Amino acid sequence: MADDLSNNPFMNLAPEQQLEPVAPTCGDPSCTRSHRPINSIAPGAHYSADLTERAAQLTEDGKFGPSFGHLSGGRGSKRSKRAAEVVSEFAVEAAPKIRKAFEDGLDDSNSIGVRQATALHLLGIEKDEHLLRLKEEQQEFNQMTKAELVQSIMQSLGALSKAGEIAGEIIEGTVVEEDE
Asked: 106 with 119: CB under 8 angstroms?
């Protein structure tokens, strides 16, 4: 089935504007391919022969642009979401219902098997969250300079000392590196 190209501004050539094939212009006498300069396409009724101007005119007329494919927006500008992203967003929205489901699963009216399965599932989720937090902290520590790392450790020790978790007094000092 042939497409009707009569409304295509790149194809609406008047009979006197029909182009003849151009002889080889690549300079190689053994070349048998027919070459035609890119801007030898005759303009439509009111479109410029210059391709840059023609693109601007077509865009202005609403016949050219990003809505016609990957033009002037680059590939991948509209990335579709991964399934995990969609499910994660849904889980955030449904958090109160999910919490209620776990509370119902732990209810004393359920069998011991249901309560155990629910508890194990909750513990698994808590473990995953804890591991994720540890990874994030590790990444933060890996990006710190020595001075920032020492300051962070001193703040943590100070907080533990104030809470009574560490006996004795913490004395501030300066970091000295020894050559071995």
From this structure: yes
Structure tokens at 101: 């489901």
Distance between CA 168 and CA 174 in Å, rounded? 19
pTM: 0.40
User: Per-residue pLDDT tens for 85-105?
Assistant: 899 899 999 999 999 999 999
CA distances from 179 to 149, 157, 176 (A): 20, 27, 10
Residues 6+ apart with CB under 8 A from 166: 157, 160
The alpha carbon of 26 is separated from its chain's Cα centroid by a whole number of angstroms, namely 43
Distance CA 102, CA 115 (A): 9
Residue carrying structure tokens 């410029």: 48
> Tell me: the pLDDT tens digits for 66-75?
666 545 455 5
DSSP states along the chain: -----TT-TTT---GGGPPPPPPP-SS-TT--S----GGGSPP-TT--SSHHHHHHHHHHTTSSSGGGSSSSS-TTTTPPPPHHHHHHHHHHHTHHHHHHHHHHHT-TTS-HHHHHHHHHHHHHHHHHHHHHHHHHHHHHHHHS-HHHHHHHHHHHHHHHHHTTSS-S-PPP----PPP-
